[in-house]
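Suppose a colleague, Dr. K., hands you the sequence of a protein chain of 182 amino acids and asks what its three-dimensional shape might be. Before reaching for any lab equipment, you can write down a predicted structure in token form. Begin with the sequence itself:
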Amino acid sequence: MFFALVPSENTDPDIHREIERMIDAYGNDVLRIAYLYLKDKHRAEDAFQEVFIKVFKKFGSFRGKSNEKTWLIRITVNVCKDMLRSAWLKRVITRHELDETEGNDIVEDRIIQSQQNRRLFEEVMKLPTSYRETIILYYYQELDTAETAKILGIAEGTVRSRLTRARELLKSNLEGKVESFG
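The predicted structure, expressed as tokens, is then:
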């Protein structure tokens, strides 16, 4: 994927350096969240570019009330929600490819783990939006409850209760279908 800021006469080169630093520091997180929301590599890449275009346009409005990563993830979540609302959304089923050169036992273990991970991911994606967002930010992005609350604009206690309820739903939906979930 290629993304470059093209300097113009009217923009400060320091802003370009800062945004490129942010892309280096947080670009993988932005892309990963976008993919988790959109379930399509190309749409996630589009979202990535849209996020950093918005960052460029709104760079001066960042007041530092939250950390940069939290700010970027909030923008990413909002961009993805906007994209999901669009009428031309196409569903894509993710596939995990295996390296054929590995031993049979290793391949078998990876297939089982891959199927379990995919099953868990599919169940997470079936959750109501409020639970799904909370799970993605907390577990997949490894944010704490305070950061998750800031990104979603809700109370920290609400994050904890959504996590509890989401785990209960996942456990119920996955009962006996995925080993060692808990």
